[in-house]
Structure formats: structure tokens, C-alpha cells
Amino acid sequence: MAPIVQTLMWITWLISYPIGKILDKILGEHKFQRYDNDQLKKLVLLHSVKALQEVEDHIPEGINGISEE
Fold first, then answer.
1. Is the pTM value of this prediction over 0.70?
2. Tell me, what DSSP letter sits at residue 60?
3. What are the pLDDT digits (tens) for 2-21?
4. Quick one: three-class SS letters along 24-54?
């Protein structure tokens, strides 16, 4: 890394690290939700145009979804 970037990282670390630790204690650490490939495919399919057309009677006007392309 460039020396300027490393210097800026060290300067901001002195401020951001303690603030981050305090916020973690107060608010709690956040958990990431990750999807595997099968779950991601189902999520995309759920929001695809084809899926929206299957439930046509429940679609508000102006909602298109994701195209198959």
C-alpha cells in the first residue's frame, strides 16, 4: 500500500477502533445473512417476472420484477 494510505489508516484507526468497540458493546455485534447458491436462485426466481405473472391477481400496478435476461 502507498505510504499515504497507510498513514491515513493509522490516523483514523486511533479514532474509529475505540468508537467501534463502544458501539459493539452498546448495540451488539451484527450478524451477516449469507445465501448459498440454491437459496439465491430461489430468491431471484421469487422476484422474477415469471413468478410475478403466476400471482398476477396480487400484483399492484407498476410492479415489473426482474426480467429473465
1. no
2. P
3. 999 999 999 999 899 999 99
4. HHHHCCCCCCCCCHHHHHHHHHHCEHHHHHH
